[in-house]
Write the structure tokens for this entry.
Amino acid sequence: MIRTAAAVRRRARVRRASILAFLAVMGPGIITGFAGNDAGGVTTYTSVGAHYGFEMMWLLLLSTVGLLVIQEMCARMGAVTGKGLSDLIRERFGVRWTIVAMFALLIANGSNIVAEYAGIAASLQLFGVQRIVSVPIAAVLIWVLVVFFSYRIVERALFVLVLAYIAYPISAFIVGPPWGEVVRDSVIPTLPIGQAALIAALALVGTTITPYMQFYIQASVVDKGIDRDQYRFERVDVLLGAILTGLNGFFIVVVAGAVLHPAGIHVDSAADAAQALGPLAGQQAQLLFGVGLFGASLLAATIMPLSTSYAICEAFGWESGISKNFREAPVFMGLFTLLVVVGALIVLSPSVPLIPVILVSQNVNGLLLPIVLVFILKLAGDRRIMGDHANGRVSQWIGIGTAVGASVLSIALVAITIVGAAP
Amino acid sequence: MPYLSEIQHRRVIEPNGNEVGKLADIAVVPQGQFPAAQWAILSTPSGEKVVRWGDLAQEIGHLRLRNRLETTPDAQLPPEALRLARDLLDKQIVDTHGAKVVRVNDLQLSEVDGQLRLVGADVGLRGLLRRVGAETVAERVAGLAGRRLPRGIIPWHLVEPLEAAHDAPAKTAAVRLTIPHAKLALLHPADIADIVEEMTADERIAVFQQLDLETAAEALQEVEPEMQAAIVTDLPEERAADILEEMDPDEAADLLQDLSEERRDELVELMDKEEAKDVEELLTHPEDSAGGIMTTDFVALPREFTAAQAIDELRAKKPDPQLTYYLYVVDAEGKLEGVLSLRDLVVAAPETKVSDIMDPNVLKVDAETPKEEVAALIAKYDLLGLPVVDARKKLLGTVTVDDVVELMLPRGWKKRSLRSIAR
């Protein structure tokens, strides 16, 4: 009798232990998924839905699969090697290629930071705050919070605001889109020809699989000290994160496609984008959209310069750490400050249109994605580095497919732009 | 003094001048202080070939095999061998606490007793620039701005390649910087200072926590002024105050002058009363005047002393060597009356009064004299020291030649000479 009770207790303990083990590693994937819903994400998905209805849904689904596979590779590399992505790039490819990779990352993330400030400006404009006021305040606030406090505080507070995005799935069911059409467009690939469509398609890929997410998830896995044994739990976390990004995009496109597209509303401003939430929130649509966009933009505008500086300093062996001062970590602090300042300055210029800037930034990400992917695929497939955990054939081919797909879109866009520009 | 990046990829030719491949890598067995190059890995059209390093002769621009490639025996790399480019280059050097420090940008090799040996890891900007072939250009640009590119070389005997973990799939060699602090203490304080300057802030603090007080004080005196202030700011107050007490009062005063007022007051408060008084007195003088650089330690003999009493006094006080170059004679109020040398004292009959053997014509400066002028006087009259007096001729302190030697040298000379001597 006594023995049975002990056995039951033991079994309960074992089960609790594995749940705890799971919860302990949870986070990197889901946080990265959340971070994907930044200004670039919301704007691009809304714009794609408004212009093309559900037509590009298949591309979103493919991108999500690509995202899942690539994020899994990076998380696995972090768990197996205990090193960040830029660390591995430097050790495997040497100084010259590291400069190429870091330059690509710097430009991609720099354009994202510009997009985040544009998101801050656009969301606060809904509440009547001009960008000449909102952008400098946001930049100073971010710099001070990160340097003198901790970005974790910011992270927690802003997560709450980002929850406003729950409005999209709810709206989707209230609006009741033609689900048949949604499913059809999800499985049958169609792509309108033309520069505008290519821009939209590349932005869609670039915002779903942002290069920054790969560096970020690998760094988080390393930071958390997740090792090979815990990795099977981490896989679930990565899966959930990718699904979160995909679903978020899916519902935004569905709502925009069902509400804005038939009404012929093209997204030229945050106010246009907010109309997508009209059926759910009515008069409060702007408030709901604005809060969500503001939270997401500010969150990403805080994390992005920080993680960029970490990645670059890691690659070149420069002192980094936010608790250090300018004398101790000059490049790290300088880079962080520069990204904040330049990002804000670009958006401050009144001639810069906010929504187009965000879309262009996601194109930049899409253009640079193949470069980063080549490095990731070579590393994750290298048995010298990864041993038995190197990429299997399926992962490797999906990865290559993603890189090729993004490259084809990029080349097509560049080609059509050049041809279009010619008289 | 070749660097790995300069000889890697050099052409390898046979005795008859026929090119057979390129030098891919050099292998060493990491034993001893500076391991010798034992194998060369050649990349030939038919794959990699390992040969003994002795089978190659270094010639200008290329390497020549002593025999034809087919007749050169294949060598086997033992498992403990390290390939410099593959296993060490671009790797991180982590400190003894496992925190990140820097990256191996290049490896310094040197011909010692006819053998090419690994003597240092280049972790500085120069190494990075050399790798991309931009060192010379950058040096010229820096030269135009009147500056020199900093060197950053860690002597190899202080670095230890970390054993790869047993379950690691491959040599993921992180290079661990072992500066065992006990070993560090055996080095000359000036060398400790050089090494410490290359470290991260955290590691630096750890070193100054663990060195014995006297060594810590001497090493701190040799560290660059800006870094001194950073170290003293980051150290726990008690420890910082203890080290300052051990330093020469003039050096301590200079250092304190660079700190924030708050921190300075805290530290002076914690210091031993007597040392604190000396230092506070020095702090009242501007940093670049004779009063700012002088030390308040000196040997002052009352005029009525006999030679025998004076020698007894010296035996009792055991002053530092640089304070015994000149012995000063003062009256009851401390006014400077004359000077004599240790020799004068020793050769004089024991009963002779010091006032009879002293030279009453003393060259002296007042506390406000600019330090450059002090240096000029010392240089002109070949002095080893110069007394500093106030308006009423009261002896305040002395400036010894070691306090001004840096002013007499061309900019940057000290650093350079030390490094070249160390080689």
About this structure: The longest strand of chain B covers residues 19-28. Chain B touches chain A at residues 89-93, 100-103, 105, 123, 128, 131-132, 167-170, 172, 200-201, 226, 230 (CB under 8 Å).
